[in-house]
Amino acid sequence: MTDILITCDSELSAGLHQRGASVEENVRSSIRGEVSAGRFGIDWQMDCMDAHGLRGVFFVDPMPTLVYGREFLDDVVGSIVERGHEVQLHIHTEWLEWAPQSPVGSRRGQNIGDFEADDQEVLLAYATDTLMAAGAPRPTAFRAGNYGADDRTLAALARLGFTWDSSFNAGYLGRGCGIGLPAGTAAPVRREGLIELPVGAIRDRPGSVRAAQICALSTREMRAALRHAIESKQPAFVIVNHSFEMLSRDRQRPNALATQRFRELCEDVGSNPNLRGVGFADLYPGMADDPGTCDLLPANVFRTGERILQQAAGNLLYERSMRPPA
User: Fold this and answer.
1) CA–CA separation, 225 vs 320, rounded Å?
2) Structural contact between residues 247 and 33, judged by C-beta atoms closer than 8 angstroms
């Protein structure tokens, strides 16, 4: 059996804050995915997972509390915990730019990996305490905003008692992700005192790796990746999503391509007896000692070509004709 982690990076938009949006407006757009047609953010995603008996993982970023205060975070965390889904830790350190008081003084960085080791530990400890104060159980897993962690981040997390990290994304190597693993890493691996569980990925063409993200893979590619995970006896496969990912680029209407993919993913995982939709609390750390073959799904020109055409149509409908992203 392969454990499937459907993860959602749940975060406010720094861009909306810069353009003067209130915290209420930011939450409605970035977390709840609220548009005239309804809500398509974390609540909608939990509805889809609940319908198929799946447990989701919501990596929640507490750093905007430095700017907005904690009330919004209490509401977000509470809505996830009350429904039985999992809250884990996420960090976007760009929020320090607007913080009247910062845990690391005047030092700034786009990613957690931009900071020295001591500052990383201070920021991670602050974020952990803030998330727990908002009602989350003590987090055991972490994902860096922009996947911008490095090996020092993993060591700091281990010192703080974390068991898991899921910041390694091969597509971001050299673009923020500084964890020193090979691009083709698919297996859970012990590193710097904890277990790195990489973001799932496929080879979409020779020399290119594409993350298992709702907006990045077609349903056919995702299904092939899940079959491959079962056949290669991969113990766990991580899928990435965002709280605002079901919306068009201007966040004014639902993205029908993304919502269809998410619904089909939940149905596929929920109906397959060889897959189990779980959180990190359900995982067995010993999987890092016997990870199976865990190679990436090989490229297939037909699957890739179909997705390129599908993405082009989706971009025309929901991306390029819209205003710049928030």
Assistant:
1) 28
2) yes
Tell me the two tokens of residue 259.
């919502």
Residues near 291 by beta carbon (within 8 Å), at least 6 away in sequence: 187, 188, 189, 234, 235
HSE-up of residue 59 (Cα within 13 Å, Cβ side): 26
Alpha carbon 89 to its chain centroid, in Å, reads 10
The whole-angstrom separation of Cα 180 and Cα 218 is: 29
Where b means 16+ CB within 10 Å and e means fewer, 291-309 reads: bbebebbebbeebbeebee
Classify residue 70 by its DSSP letter. Answer: S
CB 278 within 8 A of CB 235: no
Q: Tell me which residue of 152, 180, 159, 158 sits closest to 168, measured CA to CA.
A: 180
Angle among Cα 305, 310, 314 to the nearest 5 degrees reads 145
Query: Which pTM value belongs to this model?
Result: 0.95
pLDDT tens-digit readout, 202-250: 998 888 899 999 999 999 999 999 999 999 999 999 999 999 999 998 8
Distance separating alpha carbons of residues 206 and 202, to the nearest angstrom: 11
